[in-house]
């Protein structure tokens, strides 16, 4: 019987230094830990290793310049984008909101291992948080690969203070999802809705962000 060789971890792209600056060692440490444990813990698939830096880590880090204040990341999973952003932006306070126990344990252990004082983990479903007192209204909410905008906006907008922002990572279908979400955009009184394309400025795969101001 032949044994297949596990796919190799992607070599760190040049843009990583640009995006993480002096935090690059912490980013490397997170990538190494995710590469070692991610598949066993069901956080990433085996085919993700050859694209771990470019498809996941740098893709998440692209949001860093858009953030400030208190930020919640809904559905963090392995830590994308919230934990990566917590590494890149130690001046911003992040709450990683994730309902699955195994994933929150992973997030908590990584936060403790890297000593990230600006990152906390909350085991919850986003829609169950408003009114509980567990989370003060946030300045911004991020999310990546959680659901289509039509369902994501009702999960995220109630967590944001009046005048705060949604910063939602979307792929090529951003405009289609926006068209299908017009009803919830009106219901949650979102305005200044825009699609930003990020990545080209760092020579990495581009990603599309839907950003909107919440005005309840
Ligand atoms: C496909 S994974 C994406 C994880 C990560 N954001 C990424 O980009 O790799 C979706 C994550 O959203 C979480 N999730 C699903 N519904 C949620 C909800 N209502 N509130 C908070 N998190 C939720 C799931 O547990 C899961 O970890």
TrEMBL record:
Tree of life domain: Bacteria
> For this protein, what is the EC number?
2.1.1.-
SUPFAM superfamilies cross-referenced by the UniProt entry: S-adenosyl-L-methionine-dependent methyltransferases
Q: Where in the cell is it found?
A: Cytoplasm
Which EC class is this protein assigned?
A: transferase
Primary site of residence: cytoplasm
GO molecular function terms listed in the Swiss-Prot or TrEMBL record: rRNA (guanine-N7-)-methyltransferase activity
Family recorded in the similarity comment: Belongs to the methyltransferase superfamily. RNA methyltransferase RsmG family.
Cellular component GO terms held in the UniProt record: cytosol
Q: What is this protein called?
A: Ribosomal RNA small subunit methyltransferase G
Query: Which InterPro entries does its entry note?
Result: rRNA_ssu_MeTfrase_G, SAM-dependent_MTases_sf
Q: Which organism is it from?
A: Agrococcus baldri
What UniProt keywords are attached to this protein's entry?
Cytoplasm, Methyltransferase, rRNA processing, S-adenosyl-L-methionine, Transferase
The protein's role, per its UniProt record: Specifically methylates the N7 position of a guanine in 16S rRNA.
Q: Which residues bind S-adenosyl-L-methionine?
A: 75, 80, 126-127, 144
* Pfam short name (any one): GidB
